[in-house]
Specification:
23% of the residues lie in helices and 25% in strands. The protein is globular and about 35 Å long. Strand 1 and strand 2 form a beta hairpin. The protein has one domain. It has a four-stranded mixed beta sheet with strand order 1-2-4-3. The model has no long low-confidence stretch (mean pLDDT 79).
């Protein structure tokens, strides 16, 4: 069975309360997902593919872009405080 890795996983978008968030699901289909949250000004593309793919070979991985990254239209502090609700709503 072929699994999606960092170079082939499609970017998916979800809208929550009028804000559009990007994320990628990759790796194994079953298991407890490992959620990769990037530092304050980073994006999901900032992760080293070798690190991401290493984890994805053994378990599901979710790469997540915080609100305001790279879309700077939104207040970062307010967006960060709302991330819990967004993460709960990811399919």
């Amino acid at each position: 069975m072929t699994i999606e890795l960092s170079t082939t996983a499609p970017t998916t978008f979800v809208e929550v309360n009028g804000t559009r968030y990007a994320y990628r699901r990759l790796g194994q289909e079953r298991g407890v997902p490992l959620l990769f949250l990037q530092h304050f000004t980073g994006t999901m593309d900032s992760w080293d593919p070798t690190v991401v793919d290493g984890f994805a070979k053994a378990r599901p991985v979710i790469l997540f872009d915080n609100a305001g990254e790279p879309d700077r239209k939104h207040d970062r502090f307010e967006a960060l405080s709302n991330n819990r609700n967004i993460l709960i709503g990811l399919p």
